[in-house]
Amino acid sequence: MIDTRPRRHPAWIAFLIHRLSGLALALFLPLHFWALGQAIQGEAALDGFLRWADNGVLKFAETVLVVLLAAHLAGGLRVLALEFLGWRAQQKTMVAASAGVALAAGLLFLLNLGA
Amino acid sequence: MNGVHLWAVQRITAMFLALAVVVHLVTILVAVRGGLSGAEIIARTSGSLAWFGFYAAFALAAGLHGAIGLRAIGAEWLGWRGRGVDALWLGIGLATAAFGIRAAWGLFSA
């Protein structure tokens, strides 16, 4: 029987979320640059893209991306704190704080979308 | 580049990206209030060397950071290893960065 206990540890879940969020962000990046690159053709082209993206499905996708970005940021700061500051004692606290930062960023994004 | 160099580049870009992503997230939260518009984005970025420099550095760091991360995932999960694969990831990272710098130039010169 395979021992799955290490994979239930918060630090392993944090590693997986960091990796999957990084993968999603890396795949999204060329698309993001393509969209912003519409500005090369002028304001009208950029506005055309923004109007196309102004719907519920893409707003949901944008919210997920904001959460992923904040999760990758907070998870990355956790890794840097581990490697450069040796903060090994508060692993679970740092994982929880990372999750909190990611969810807070998503909520703030949604609140500002509706503002 | 060996593993130590890649680790160093990944951590140096991570430190810069940590600051850049905070700036980016705050900018996003402010920009989406009242709806996004091309005019609003271009009014902020057009002719601004500070924003162009920020976004160009951001794109370069993100392109390299992403490519090194994808290289690790490819090696560990898919077994993609070797100099040829490394050269491909470097090409993808630099091409992504160049694409981002092109977009930043578009926002600067619009």
Helix content of chain B: over 70%
How big is the Rg of chain A? 18 Å
Proportion in β-strands of chain B: under 5%
Query: How would you name the oligomeric state of the polypeptide chains in this document?
Result: heterodimer
Low-confidence stretches of chain B: none
Coarse morphology of chain A: elongated
Instruction: Write the element-wise H/E pattern of chain B from the N-terminal end onward.
Output: HHHH
Provide the number of structural domains of chain B.
1
What's the mean pLDDT score of chain B? 95
> What is the percentage of strand-forming residues of chain A?
under 5%
What structural class do the secondary elements of chain B suggest?
Answer: mainly alpha
**Helix-strand category of chain A:** mainly alpha
SS summary, helix count of chain A: 5
The biggest sheet of chain B, with number of strands, parallel, antiparallel or mixed sense and barrel status, is: none
Beta-strand segment tally of chain A: 0
Number of discrete helical segments of chain B: 4
What's the shape of chain B?
elongated
How do you describe this structure in short?
The complex is a heterodimer of chains A (115) and B (110). Chain A has 115 residues and is an all-alpha fold. Chain A is built from five helices and no strands.
